[in-house]
Amino acid sequence: MNEFKKFKIIDGTFVWENIKFTSKDDEGKEVIQFFDLDPVVLYENSTRDTSRSLQVGRMIRNARKELGLTQEQLARKAGTSKHYISRIENEKSGIELMTLKKIVEGLGKRLQISIE
Fold it and tell me: What is the 3 state secondary structure string of the chain?
């Protein structure tokens, strides 16, 4: 595990220069390569850490329902799509801070963030 903590990001790829192997190029010359992992492969094989989730989607859904708004109505007020509101409410999509602000304002509320 300590060896895997020694990665670098080179050209958008996770590379472990400390984990080497040899192979042959097209001309049959021996080439030293480093173990690497494409970020897409890493993402596709990862599981979501729900213990760190802020559950923003659940808060938006609860506030929307309390106001009697549909996802479509909220989307119109926030300047986004019903599909996006659905993805956020179901924690299937991340959300940028300015978009969150627009959605919260679409709910007639004020966004307040605190770091304690």
Answer: CCCCCCCEEECCEEEEEEEEEEEECCCCCEEEEEEEECHHHHHHCCCCCHHHCCCHHHHHHHHHHHCCCCHHHHHHHHCCCHHHHHHHHCCCCCCCHHHHHHHHHHCCCCCCCCCC
Which residue's structure tokens are 């599909």? Answer: 83
In a domain, 113, yes or no: no
Q: What is the pLDDT of residue 41?
A: 82
Q: What is the mean pLDDT of the chain?
A: 87
Number of domains present in the structure of the chain:
2
pLDDT band at 52 (very low <50, low <70, confident <90, very high): low
Least confident span in 20-29, 61-70, 106-115: 106-115
Is 116 among the domain residues? no
